[in-house]
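The protein record quoted for completeness.
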Amino acid sequence: MLSEPRSISLVCELVHIPMKHTADHLRELYNRVCRSCGYENFIRTSSGARIEKQEAEGEGFSHLNLAGDRIQFTDDHVGISVDQFARKVSAVLREAFPLLRIPVVLVQQATVRVITTPNSFKTAAEYLARSLFRIRTADLELLGRPTSVFGFRLVFPPTREQSHGFNTRIESYLRDGRSLYVETVGTFKIPIQPQSLQMVEENILATAQFSSEKVIPFLSRYDRREDED
């Protein structure tokens, strides 16, 4: 069974109708969210602004990108939980929607990236090759050089019952060969009005739930050793 997954990166992107934000409105939004959500720096960009916080140690960062047609939140290697991230996104949007006069979100994408470690194999590549794909060592030797099985993708399209879809990427984690990197992206195409911003938070949590309750248990079923043919 795979180890308890650990979130390493969370992203939420909200696409809205194209707009032109004024510098004053962007600066005012920064003044509000830096107090309530911990952002520290304001940087003007060609299409809007980036509000950010860089971790003092390590490579972690929090970015809030405001462009002419979208808002994107990224928290990468900062130790934030999915629940905390979802609440932060909601807090920023409650300020941003009326201030920037955004009438509706057309599409939302939520991305949850986690790492987990196989218990029955020394590396994630061995887990993928020996158990999940059942590739025999002798077959890999036919390739004539050392080979590492890297990863694959699962696609879950919308259904009649569920209008949203998921796309999951599974591969060896580049920073630690023992760990498995699992990225799940949820795409939600039901428009979200300013009075229904709780849907944004719900969609983030739904993506995390799909990863933890569907994808990880599926992958855990293959964390076992069996004799090769």
In short: The chain has one domain: 6-220. DSSP finds five helices and nine strands in the chain.
